[in-house]
């Protein structure tokens, strides 16, 4: 896997993935940014949400659940010291579908957290406390 990050101006950058997709990164205005892109730590949080959501959707589909929507809402706490690493992250999954079985949704969230999500495993190994919960919304 490869990526490149190109400085644009001030504290703005364009990151390009090895697969050819680009994302704008920028700092907060108080650090010289223009607020034209996500902060790098926000991208890490979004990446975790994407990784875990991919797992949950895939597992539910394999379990033949009639899932119509999955939303991961993430909240994080960071250390007060530099580097301001994440110390705690909570993922709340809102899973919508028809006749969803709670045991399957619970299993999908647990499998993502404990076995499949590479981003979660990496952050946990670095000392981040990651918790998960879910709610089921009938379609």
UniProtKB/TrEMBL annotation:
Pfam families membership: OsmC
Region forming the signal peptide: none
Domain of life of the native organism: Bacteria
InterPro entries: KH_dom-like_a/b, OsmC/Ohr_fam, OsmC/Ohrsf
UniProt protein name: Putative redox protein
Species of origin: Agitococcus lubricus
Organism lineage: Bacteria, Pseudomonadati, Pseudomonadota, Gammaproteobacteria, Moraxellales
